[in-house]
Here is the input.
Amino acid sequence: MTDATAGGLSMTPLLVEICGLYVLIALLFAAWAKTIGFAAFRRSLADAFPAMARVDAAVAFAIVVAEWTIASLLLVGGAPARIGMVAALVLLALFTLVIGAALASGRAIVCSCFGASGHRIGGVDVVRNLALTAAAAVAVVWPIPDDAWPLVQQLILAGIATILVFASVRLRDLAWLLRAKPGT
Here is the structure.
C-alpha cells in the first residue's frame, strides 16, 4: 500500500495488519492449546480461583469457546471481523486485568494461557497480555480493508505475526536468555 500524500510505502497499514494477525494467531494458538489440554486448563482455573470450584469446567469451556468464536469471526473478514476484534480487545483486556489483580494480591497462579505449563504467572505474562491488548486496540482503531494485501504479502505478514506470537508465548525464556551471562 502506498501513502498518497508521501508517495511512498506507508508503514501504518503494515503495522495494523500485523497487529490483527498477531491477535488472530495468538487466539488460535491459545484456543487450540486449551482444547487439547482442557483438563490441565480447567485444573489451573480451579487452583487459581478456588471460589469457582463448582463452575470451573463451565468457565474453562466458555473461555475456550470464546477464543475459538472470536478467532473464527476474525477469519471471516468484513463486519464479523470488526466485531471479533472488538471482542478480542475486551477478552484480552479482561485477561490482563485478572492476571494483574492476581499478581497484586500475591496469588500464585500457574499459567495455562497457551496450554499446560508449569510456570507461575508473572510480570512477563502481563507484558505479553498488554502487547496483545495493544495490538487488538490498534486493529480496532485503524481497521484496514480485507483486500488490502495480495495473498503473498498476507502470507509474509502472517509469518511475521506467527513469529511474534511464538516470541510472546516464550517471552519468559527469551528474557532469561537475554539476562544469561556467557559461561553460566
